[in-house]
Write a structure and sequence with these properties.
218 residues, alpha/beta, seven-stranded mixed β-sheet, four-stranded antiparallel β-sheet, 14 strands, 28% helix, globular, binds ribulose-5-phosphate
Length: 218
């Protein structure tokens, strides 16, 4: 199976985690697109979705799935999203698709985070994938210097403006040994809107697509 087939496999597998009559939290990315397309075949089973990006909203709506605003819901039973990296404790790097801030907001509403990913995303230590950080443009250089001081190299994602009108720095060279501590530290830097470490909002379950089938990690 190639990577696209593995993404489709876990996209379909995630349907088992969608309760009858639910409003579902929906992430962003190519793996989530597979989930959205699978969800469309069962759209009568759910009330609708809360989406983490303009792109996912458009895809959900193109399938006739109702998209609720975050203020219309108090809790979600489940949030389903992909990851750029996931470690053995469910901590993740996210934001390759620049949707990290809204992803964290919707994940925060959910009782359960189901991560769907192909096997290439599973790592022992986070940090090989450059860490996305959404920043207010005025703070970009200042935040980049802070990363340099802890051994990271921050590059502006040129030509990208997020759904929130901000910029993305991609930071390489970090070995994220303590994801919880690093997430908390970077979140305090002025001008950082969101760091793409998902440790406080780690995955409760990961459906990993492997050539042998779906491996469930929890
Ligand atoms: C978007 C994300 C995605 O979940 C992450 O980039 C994985 O994407 P894909 O499923 O396309 O590999 O965090 O901001």
């Amino acid at each position: 199976m190639n990577q696209d087939e593995l993404k489709a496999l876990v996209g379909r597998a995630a349907l088992d985690y969608v309760p009858e009559g639910a409003i579902v939290g929906v992430g962003t990315g190519s793996t989530v697109n597979c989930f959205i397309d699978a969800l469309a075949s069962q759209k009568q089973r759910i009330r609708g979705a809360v989406s983490s990006s303009v792109a996912s909203t458009a895809r959900l709506q193109s399938h006739g799935i109702r998209v609720f605003e975050t203020h219309e819901v108090e809790r979600l039973p489940v949030y389903i999203d992909g990851a750029d990296e996931i470690d053995g404790s469910g901590c993740m790097i996210k934001g390759g698709g620049a949707a990290l801030t809204r992803e964290k907001i919707v994940a925060d509403l959910a009782d359960r985070f189901v991560c769907i990913a192909d096997a290439s995303k599973r790592v022992d230590v986070l940090g090989r994938f450059p860490l996305p950080v959404e920043v207010v443009p005025m703070a970009a250089a200042q935040v980049a210097r802070r990363f340099a001081a802890i051994g990271g190299t921050a590059k502006l994602r040129v030509g990208v403006v997020t759904d929130n009108g901000q910029q993305i720095l991609d930071v390489s060279g970090l070995a994220i040994a303590d994801p919880l501590a690093m997430e908390a530290e970077i979140n305090q830097w002025p001008g950082v809107l969101c760091v793409g470490i998902f440790a406080r909002h780690r995955a409760s379950i990961c459906l990993l697509g492997t050539p042998e089938g779906v491996q469930t990690l929890s």
